[in-house]
Task: inverse folding
């Protein structure tokens, strides 16, 4: 089968918008307001719900009936925990490590689970009479590239600092991730994260371990979010007896349930609103019990940047869901993560001007390496 150009185009669309959505919420006014992360989440969820209502137009035009599915709600339920795990990971192990562990774990988990468990087809190669798979090697190259995109600019900057005394530029991928300014408490360190104050060595080691677990959890829930549509569709098709080659057509209601341009997006939008509301209610209750007021919405500050970010994220989610539905999760998830990191880096390079000289060249080399590995991985999808 080779490279699926349509699935890759959807993955690129996801990465471009997902890598761009943090830009509006990194404005000075928003950072100064110290907006709580769940308020950011609320803006995203509100726009996910509003944009999902647009699918009612093609549903009505085609005279279909809305077919809501709990699989869409389950997909949305993986979204909020992923963000919260990222925030906790950043607060304990720093932003650089949190990004690498989260993105890499999402890509690797999706690849292994959907290849080995759900049996997505991967190309087989014969070398000296032995059957080998090249896809895992390309995935490993992608993980190395992801680490390079995040860490190489900072390492290059530190070397330059030793040579000429200049302060190192901040790595763009870190600067653009929308969590660094969102964590309450702790003290900031040089990696953009905030680390636990005081405590014994054992407690700090435990905190680091918990942070790594949270970063892995972020990648896990991200994989769940986009994996549910593939797993759910396969499960429902088997129940309806329309799964696999040569099977009869699926019932129209089942097709509509997993229609990315229809009922699926509406199910996800409603699920996102419900899950976010539940988390907000729990946060408000916890703060009340602790004698604190619920987090402020900061409507005047957030209405424009929060809405722009929410719209970008909604578009990214649409492309991501379409990519997973079209190309499966084993290959597509890695492609999505790569484009997201590269887009974040390009914003830092050309908009924020964070990378200069050697740091820019090192980042560019890792970007070329990672994109090349991504294309090679895409060509390993079986027929």
Result:
């Amino acid at each position: 089968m080779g490279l699926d150009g349509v699935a890759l185009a959807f993955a690129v669309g996801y990465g471009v918008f997902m890598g761009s959505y943090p830009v509006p919420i990194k404005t000075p006014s928003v950072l100064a307001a110290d907006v709580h992360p769940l308020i950011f989440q609320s803006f995203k969820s509100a726009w996910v719900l509003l944009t999902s209502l647009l699918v009612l137009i093609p549903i009505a035009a085609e005279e279909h009936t809305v077919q809501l599915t709990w699989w869409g709600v389950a997909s949305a339920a993986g979204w909020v925990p992923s963000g919260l795990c990222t925030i906790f990971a950043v607060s304990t192990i720093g932003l650089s490590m949190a990004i690498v562990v989260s993105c890499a774990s999402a890509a690797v988990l999706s690849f292994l689970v959907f290849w080995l468990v759900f049996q997505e087809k991967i190309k087989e190669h014969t070398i000296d009479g032995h059957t080998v798979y090249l896809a895992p090697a390309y995935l490993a190259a992608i993980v190395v590239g992801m680490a390079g995109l995040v860490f190489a600019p900072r390492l290059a900057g530190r070397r330059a600092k030793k040579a000429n005394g200049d302060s190192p530029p901040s790595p763009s991928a870190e600067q653009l991730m929308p969590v660094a300014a969102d964590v309450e408490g702790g003290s900031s360190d040089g990696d953009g994260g905030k680390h636990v104050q005081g405590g014994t060595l054992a407690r700090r080691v435990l905190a680091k371990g918990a942070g790594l677990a949270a970063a892995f959890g972020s990648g896990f829930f991200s994989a769940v979010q986009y994996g549910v549509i593939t797993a759910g569709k396969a499960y429902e098709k088997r129940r309806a007896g329309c799964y696999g080659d040569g099977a009869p057509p699926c019932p129209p209601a089942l097709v509509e349930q997993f229609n990315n341009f229809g009922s699926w997006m509406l199910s996800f939008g409603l699920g996102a609103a419900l899950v976010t509301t539940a988390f907000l209610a729990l946060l408000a209750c916890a703060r009340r019990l602790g004698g604190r007021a619920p987090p402020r919405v900061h409507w005047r500050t957030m209405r424009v940047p929060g809405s722009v970010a929410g719209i970008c994220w909604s578009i990214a989610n649409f492309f991501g869901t379409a990519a997973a539905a079209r190309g499966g999760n084993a290959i597509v998830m890695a492609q999505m993560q790569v484009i997201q990191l590269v887009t974040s880096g390009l914003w830092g390079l050309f908009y924020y001007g964070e990378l200069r000289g050697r740091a820019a060249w090192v980042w560019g080399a890792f970007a070329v390496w990672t994109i090349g590995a991504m294309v090679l991985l895409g060509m390993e999808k079986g027929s």
In short: Residues 201-240 form the longest helix (40 residues). Confidence is low (pLDDT under 50) at residues 159-198. Residues 5-378 form one domain.
